[in-house]
Design a protein that fits this description.
The protein has nine helices and three strands; from the N terminus they run ααααβββααααα. Helix 5 packs antiparallel against helix 6. The chain has a three-stranded antiparallel beta sheet with strand order 1-2-3. The chain is mostly helical. The longest helix has 24 residues. The chain has three domains: about 40 residues, no CATH class; about 60 residues, no CATH class; about 80 residues. A hairpin with a 6-residue loop joins strand 1 and strand 2.
Amino acid sequence: MVIVNHDRYETFEKMHWLCFHLEYEHDADPDEPCSDVSSCPWHRINFLGDELRALGRDPDEVMQRALLGRVLNHRRHIANRCTRRRAMKFEFRSSNVEILAAPPRQLNRWAALVIVRIMNKDFVLFNLREAQEEIAKTIRDLQTDLEYDEPEFLVAMMHLYHHVNTAWNARNSTPEQSNACSEDDFKRWRRCPTDAELLLV
């Protein structure tokens, strides 16, 4: 059903304007901008992307954050319409977005998304493995090194908490961010999470 551009529905051969453009006006690959700079949606998308990059923002990351915010805003509303908790995964083509969707029969006709998770699993696993190695080393040293005392334990715990905190705080970082690991990110990621974040009591 065409609502927003209903007044031009007949003009566009009873098609949505985008379908009409791609069918009759678009003179390039469907996934590439065409010569119609004023109307082609790919030009508009590219213009917005260029502006975001000029402001130092990653367009893909902005889109992911916007999608996450939109879905989480409706999460409770959607969950109330689920008849079961069982969910299935489907692929969303983005660098680190995982979308869970309940089967359509379990939702109302418009609600499809249940939750979006943005997680840099490679970076999380790297830090958890580093933490695991530190725990194993600390236990071994406590058991076997008679001179092991609080100073050594302090260094070990600093290293351990650094990686555990980073695993949590940087879980939503992009691969580019985690690979670069700027000084500001390094300091921010290694801080202890708040009680509110982890629901500690």
